[in-house]
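Annual report, structural modelling task.

Input specification for the magnesium ion complex:
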Amino acid sequence: MNRFGVVPVHPWNPETESIERAAEILRSGGLVAFPTETVYGLGANGLSPDAALKIYAAKGRPQDNPLILHFAACRDIEPLAHISRRARVLMKKFWPGPLTLVLPSKGVVPREVTAGLDTLAVRMPSHPVALALIDRAGFPIAAPSANSSGRPSPTDAQAVANDLGDRVDLILDAGPTAVGVESTVLDLTGPEIILLRPGGCPIEEIEATTGEKILLSGGDDHRSPGTRYRHYAPSVPLLLDREEGVRPRAMAIGGRVAWMGMMGPEKIFPDGEVHESLSIVFSSAENYARGLFHAIRTLETRQADVIVAQWPPSPEGLGRAVRDRLERASSRE
Ligand code: AMP
Ligand code: MG
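The model returned the following structure:
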């Protein structure tokens, strides 16, 4: 372990000793940052009010923004939430994986986790380190993304250390995450399935499984409190290439214009205004999602004055999640 409390762990066969050490910290009410397939999570005992409160304090997270509970076995959900037939179908098909289900709560989970709602958000991550940690801890782990509130989510241990530092007791480092954006969040508490947040699980696949059309919530912040807050904000302005007059606007902000997208910057910046070291190009929507948050941090480190991001041409697959994150990252509210 180095001085930041970062413990390297094998991503597929996590060392028992490291997992036990992290689990012990969770059992004694501490905070452990750990990899999931989506982003790094900031974990605490999800059944302990005091432990859950530490998450809010470490992140500077508003307390009316509820936490997702992470499980390693479906049977552990039964005492805590009502699982409908539809929920079971989705669990069977997409778990473990990047899909979070909001279910009617049985009122057992502390209000510090649910933010006082009568619903509970549950997920089973597929990352072997996350599963081993939950299993070893012996209780569900409450875990939002391991970044300070409002900042881009961390997709590697270094990003967690840089952002949260000693506000976390231990960081398990299993390298970069595979999906790169957070889970898809579905509200299953009503007659229709409502999308609360697009994410790693494409809604086309969910619709094909259930045979039902998913309602797009359109940022209904009453249902999912987290969507109300400013999110994923880079330390420099982020503009979208689809905005009117983006080229002069970017250049008015500063000389170090950065670019990220699924094609090069030449169409928007034909005169070589974007230096090669400030241009990040992804070969697919999946790769855009995987690298999005890391790219923002990299361009910040390279002292970009402004980042111009390409709006993914298609809302299908991971494109929908990338669009959502870019929209929030570029918001000036
Ligand atoms: P994160 O902070 O990245 O973990 O995001 C968690 C998301 O899940 C936030 O947008 C929360 O508002 C949402 N969420 C968690 N629990 C619930 C719940 N019971 N009902 C609706 N949304 C929830
Ligand atoms: Mg988050």
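The chain has two domains: 6-216, 238-329.
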